[in-house]
């Protein structure tokens, strides 16, 4: 006789295994190929000198077939969740299973843990295999025990969260396909909806800024995006993983509670609880509205007419889609009351933003009330690792704050931002964060078509020390251990700077950068950059351009024998071509070697080494505003190297003679 | 004893069961009649503890059924469309039942297998419909339930199998006082086994009767007299239906046999027959009295 007190019923587990077992087996096989087998294959190739990848070691086990691992984390738990609870989405089996003498609690536990075992066991077994390999084979060059533990924790937490979340979603719908679809939607939803909201408010409210870093902070709202993101950029065991672990348990408990009140007869219904339907409808309509608004905002350059069209069209599509899903038919063209109410409310909200009923767009703080200001240029999430930002300095100079508020008022008065964004060399995007004396912040973000236009305001800002420090904050960090420096120019790929030179070089860069004038900062013409390469992450680096005004830095580099790396005069130049900006030859000078004699009638070319030396030396004095362009070719005369501009009075006589 | 009191059930906005009350005595067979969509299946699922009512009580032996595991171990519900796990054989299903139902009787399972003459290691879904029905009853009866809830169990079966299954059920009712509820849309299908019958229509229970009461209570009377008579002859009798064909009266009269005989004999009829009614005729007249045309509800 079976023991009556044993919680799990053998036959029910068997039956559960028959429906979800294939997932477990397939997952195990997939993982075998992804990890142990791959490692064994790599090991047998170890002799191959070219196979250097593993000699650097790996950061974590996701470096091995990472994309496949991520895909399996995305797909397997959702599949398992759908199939484990398939029985309650089919009428016949739902009735049968619930007629059995088992409490709902027990039924849920049986099916939940059967499905869960199917995704956890393969991971544990693979972990065990990796551990055995680590003990018996020579895999130290690839991974160590620490890697296995990290991998196990990350994979188990992510998989548990996605699985229990899918189980939870199963509780609110009666169709397996909808269960899968809703699971994925909700896993992306938090990020998607916040992104859409912020983007659309940016679209409608001039000057709105969500603050820098908002995109980064957003990713952890979606476990899926977080997985991809953390494997790309951060370490895998960041604190978010523990939050996910707690969420997984919460989802499990919520799924259990929901299951106990879930009516059996709701199998084959799209949404189980009646009051979910309007929420679902509004949700889908809103998402599509924002999505289409975003689309037209991006494609049509923020023209408000098109954006509004996008909103209405998107809401229309979303509303129809939601209706179709709920009613399970595509003949849903009768119900328009809800749609018109929605559109009415939405238009009022949009109008309130467009016409700025809250005074958001015109609000400029009184300089008296401002304690400090941060102004950042073109900040973005693509600029790399921002963990090191810490507390950025603020502009606290009272006079300058006043200038900034005047500048802000000027931007609003001019209304430049209302036309489309047309970028030129003087365009920028400025982020202003006022830190008020009462502790509040006012954050705004503006596209500035031309910095030059606002010179009277921006010159003192650009030349302010705090401004300079906050915009290149990394240059002033003292975490040299994490970086090594490299030199990059038109003439040479990365040249490593020896450690002994790093300190003086950084010091020189800081000095030159802080001394740079507004004019010099605008002229971003340099063919020499100093790179700060991360020692930890090969994808990550920062750089600073060394223009001709960086005299201390250039002097230092010259004295240390790096001139060959960045000076044209040191290169093997075979030919030089020169033209005036009014020249009849309108193509880029790089095309000169292929041009015919007649086309080049007013282009000066020379192959004379003496003349070349004299012209190449001009590079150091080049002038961005000059009307003459000099192009250098070498080491063979048809290979274009570089070009720079120069004023007429700098040109040697033998060039000017040609034009007399 | 099964007791259902003032049960209401809604699916979304549709009312499926409206204030239903009924009682099934221990060891009796109750027939639940109604057309398709009347709410029979929902009522049966509520009684089996699968579906929870919105209000009212469903009790077996004075205990609520829903989520009552000791009770559910003694209840078997057979749905109209049978359910077996896909790819399962009869033996595998039997093992499953054995694991679920503590009263499972393995001896009986083996005995009945010999009677049935089918291969227990063949996958159930390969069997014919009639065979599958027999397997379902075979499994259900071996679980030795005290309460057997059957939803349209005889629908589409040939008479031989129908008779066989009925005899199994009656045997268990007689031997172990098993209580049975059986639903059908066809009265004649179940009248031979039921002790009591209830008719459900659009979620309402229209009437509920003990069949013995019904049959002894209602009579079809044919009368003819030599001379013209007036309606005095029926004074004091409860006439449900009356018509005159030539000089012959055909009446449906409710009341004791002796009372009717005594009353009519006073008028010296030349023709006087008291005939038993078929159950169906009884229902037609009963329902007429309640203001319904039975053809719209049954058949």
What does the model show?
- Chain B: GO terms for molecular function: ATP binding; ATP hydrolysis activity.
- Chain B: Residues 2-227 form the ABC transporter domain.
- Chain B: This is ABC transporter ATP-binding protein.
- Chain B: It comes from Gracilibacillus oryzae.
- Chain B: Keywords: ATP-binding, Nucleotide-binding, Transport.
- The complex is a heterodimer of chains A (660) and B (299).
- Chain A is α+β, with helices and mostly antiparallel strands and 660 residues long.
- Chain A folds into five domains: 10-266, no CATH class; 276-354; 367-471, no CATH class; 476-566, no CATH class; 568-658, no CATH class.
- Chain A has helices at residues 10-34, 36-44, 66-84, 91-99, 104-136, 145-170, 176-204, 214-218, 223-232, 240-261, 276-299, 304-327, 337-354, 398-414, 455-462, 465-471, 499-515, 518-522, 551-559, 563-566, 609-616, 653-658; strands at 370-377, 428-436, 441-448, 483-489, 492-496, 528-534, 541-545, 575-580, 604-606, 628-633, 640-646.
- In chain A, helix 3 packs parallel to helix 6 (145-170), helix 3 packs across helix 7 (176-204) and helix 6 (145-170) packs parallel to helix 10.
- The longest helix of chain A is centred in the N-terminal third of the chain and has 33 residues, at 104-136.
- Chain A starts with 9 loop residues before the first helix and ends with a helix.
- The model of chain A is unreliable at 380-388 (pLDDT under 50).
- With 299 residues, chain B is α/β, with parallel strands linked by helices.
- Chain B folds into two domains: 2-202, P-loop containing nucleotide triphosphate hydrolases (Rossmann fold, 3-Layer(aba) Sandwich); 213-296, Alpha-Beta Plaits.
- Chain B is built from ten helices and 14 strands.
- Chain B has helices at 40-47, 69-72, 90-100, 106-116, 129-142, 159-176, 187-190, 211-217, 257-265, 279-289; strands at 2-11, 14-24, 29-33, 55-60, 63-64, 75-78, 147-150, 179-184, 196-201, 204-210, 218-224, 238-245, 248-254, 271-275.
- In chain B, strands 6-7-8-3-9-10 form a six-stranded mixed sheet, with helices on both faces. Chain B has a four-stranded antiparallel sheet with strand order 2-1-4-5, covered by helices on one side.
- In chain B, helix 4 (106-116) packs antiparallel against helix 5 (129-142) and helix 5 (129-142) packs parallel to helix 6 (159-176).
- The longest helix of chain B is centred in the middle third of the chain and has 18 residues, at 159-176.
């Amino acid at each position: 006789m079976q023991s009556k007190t044993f919680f799990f019923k053998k036959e029910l587990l068997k039956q559960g295994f028959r429906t979800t077992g294939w997932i477990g087996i397939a997952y195990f096989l997939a993982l075998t190929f992804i990890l142990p087998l791959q490692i064994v294959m790599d090991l047998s190739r170890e002799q191959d000198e070219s196979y250097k990848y593993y000699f650097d070691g790996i950061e974590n086990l996701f470096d091995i077939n990472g994309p496949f691992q991520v895909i399996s984390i995305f797909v397997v738990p959702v599949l398992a969740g759908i199939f484990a609870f398939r029985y309650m989405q089919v009428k016949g089996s739902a009735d049968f299973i619930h007629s059995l003498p088992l409490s709902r609690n027990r039924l849920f536990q049986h099916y939940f843990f059967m499905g869960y075992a199917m995704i956890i066991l393969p991971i544990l077994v693979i972990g065990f295999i990796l551990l055995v390999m680590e003990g018996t084979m020579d895999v130290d060059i690839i991974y160590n025990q620490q890697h296995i533990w990290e991998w196990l924790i990350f994979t188990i937490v992510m998989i548990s969260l996605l699985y229990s979340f899918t189980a939870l979603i199963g509780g609110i719908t009666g169709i397996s396909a909808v269960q899968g679809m809703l699971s994925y939607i909700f896993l992306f939803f938090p990020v998607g909806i916040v992104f859409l909201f912020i983007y659309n408010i940016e679209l409608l409210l001039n000057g709105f800024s969500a603050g820098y870093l908002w995109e980064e902070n957003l990713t952890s709202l979606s476990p899926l995006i977080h997985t991809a993101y953390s494997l790309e950029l951060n370490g895998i065991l960041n604190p978010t993983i523990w939050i996910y672990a707690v969420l997984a348990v919460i989802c499990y408990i919520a799924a259990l509670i929901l299951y106990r009140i879930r009516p059996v007869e709701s199998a084959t219904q799209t949404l189980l609880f009646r009051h979910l339907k309007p929420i679902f409808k509004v949700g889908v309509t809103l998402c599509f509205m924002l999505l289409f608004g975003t689309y037209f905002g991006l494609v049509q350059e923020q023209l408000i007419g098109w954006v509004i069209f996008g909103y209405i069209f998107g809401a229309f599509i979303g509303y129809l889609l939601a209706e179709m899903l709920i009613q399970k038919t595509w003949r849903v063209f009768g119900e328009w009351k809800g749609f018109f109410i929605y559109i009415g409310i939405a238009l009022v909200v949009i109008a309130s933003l467009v016409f700025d009923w809250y005074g958001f767009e015109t609000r400029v703080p009184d300089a008296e009330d401002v304690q400090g200001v941060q102004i950042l240029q073109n900040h973005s999430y693509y600029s790399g690792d921002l963990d090191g930002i810490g507390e950025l300095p603020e502009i606290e100079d009272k006079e300058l704050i006043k200038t900034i508020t005047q500048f802000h008022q000027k931007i609003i008065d001019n209304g430049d931002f209302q036309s489309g964004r047309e970028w030129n060399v003087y365009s920028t995007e400025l982020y202003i964060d006022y830190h008020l004396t009462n502790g509040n912040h006012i954050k705004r973000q503006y596209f500035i078509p031309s910095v030059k236009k606002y010179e009277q305001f921006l010159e003192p800002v650009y030349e302010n020390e705090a401004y300079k420090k906050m915009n290149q904050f990394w240059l002033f960090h003292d975490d040299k251990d994490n970086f090594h420096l490299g030199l990059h120019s038109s003439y040479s790929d990365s040249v490593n700077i020896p450690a002994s030179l790093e300190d003086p070089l950084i010091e020189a860069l800081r000095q030159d950068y802080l001394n740079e004038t507004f004019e010099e900062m605008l002229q971003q013409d340099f063919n020499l950059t100093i790179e700060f390469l991360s020692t930890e992450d090969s994808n990550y680096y920062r750089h600073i351009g060394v223009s001709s005004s960086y005299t201390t830095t250039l002097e230092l580099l010259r004295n240390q024998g790096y001139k060959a790396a960045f000076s044209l005069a040191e290169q093997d130049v075979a030919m030089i071509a020169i033209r005036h900006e009014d020249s009849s030859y309108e193509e880029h000078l790089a095309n000169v070697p292929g041009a015919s004699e007649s086309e080049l009638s007013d282009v000066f070319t020379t192959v004379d080494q003496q003349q070349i030396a004299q012209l190449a030396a001009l590079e150091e004095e080049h002038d961005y505003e000059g009307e003459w362009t000099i192009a250098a070719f070498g080491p063979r005369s048809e290979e274009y190297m570089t070009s720079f501009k120069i004023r007429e009075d700098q040109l040697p006589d033998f060039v000017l003679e040609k034009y007399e | 004893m099964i007791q259902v009191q003032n049960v209401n059930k809604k699916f979304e906005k549709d009312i499926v069961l409206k204030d239903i009350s009924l009682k099934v005595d221990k060891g009796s067979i109750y027939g639940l009649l109604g057309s398709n969509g009347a709410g029979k299946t929902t009522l049966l699922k509520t009684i089996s503890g699968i579906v929870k009512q919105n209000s009212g009580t469903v009790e077996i032996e004075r205990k609520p059924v829903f989520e009552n595991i000791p009770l559910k171990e003694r209840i078997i519900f057979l749905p109209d469309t049978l359910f077996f796990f896909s790819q399962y054989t009869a033996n595998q299903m039997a093992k499953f039942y054995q694991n679920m139902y503590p009263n499972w009787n393995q001896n009986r399972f083996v005995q009945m297998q010999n009677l049935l003459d089918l291969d227990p290691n063949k996958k159930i879904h390969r069997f014919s419909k009639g065979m599958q029905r027999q397997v379902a009853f075979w499994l259900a009866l071996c679980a030795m339930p005290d309460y057997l809830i059957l939803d349209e169990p005889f629908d589409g079966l040939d008479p031989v199998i129908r008779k066989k299954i009925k005899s199994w059920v009656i045997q268990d009712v007689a031997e172990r006082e098993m209580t049975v509820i059986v639903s059908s849309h066809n009265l004649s299908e179940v009248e031979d086994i039921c002790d009591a019958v209830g008719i459900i229509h659009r979620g309402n229970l229209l009437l509920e009767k003990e069949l013995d009461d019904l049959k002894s209570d209602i009579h079809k009377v044919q009368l003819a007299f030599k001379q013209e008579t007036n309606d005095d002859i029926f004074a004091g009798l409860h006439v449900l239906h009356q018509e005159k064909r030539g000089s012959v009266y055909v009446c449906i009269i409710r009341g004791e046999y002796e009372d009717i005989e005594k009353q009519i004999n006073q008028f010296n009829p030349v023709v006087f027959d008291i005939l038993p009614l078929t159950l169906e005729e009884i229902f037609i007249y009963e329902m007429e009295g309640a203001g319904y045309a039975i053809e719209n509800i049954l058949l």
